[in-house]
Amino acid sequence: MALTSLHGLYFEEFGIGDVAVSPTRTITETDIVMFAGLSGDYNEIHTSETYASTQHFGRRIAHGLLGLSVASGLAFQMGFLIGTVDVFRSLEWEFTAPIFAGDTIRVEAEVIETKAFPRLRNGRVVFKVAVKNQRDEVVQRGTWSLLVKQKPAA
Prior knowledge:
Blueprint: E1 19-21, E2 25-26, H1 29-39, H2 44-47, H3 49-52, H4 64-77, E3 85-95, E4 104-117, E5 122-132, E6 138-149
Antiparallel strand pairs: 1-4, 2-4, 3-6, 4-5, 5-6
């Protein structure tokens, strides 16, 4: 089933194999500069075209954590997390390819595990997440574990 809800889904509404695809977002030069200022990460691979041109990718790349942060926002924009997520509990993450200014990314998320916690009135939903660019290349991937509210008692 595709996760296409425009409102938050409760724990019971998630099933193994459910898939969601986010809207897209283009990473800009401004995003990279602002993220450097916000995070304090002025590594020259992100901030110096001269330095980056001599490195492996031949040009500046976006911060990996910028890509992850934007992915989190894109996931929220899908709607099915709004108002029902108690906690973003954990993640395992890999940065598999660079994101450059001008790349357009999207998030693809698949439910791979659910576990109810009735005493807490929520449950864990684990997603396999891939961030893909405009060429359909996976640039980041991993798993996100969230605690999601159970449906309120009738």
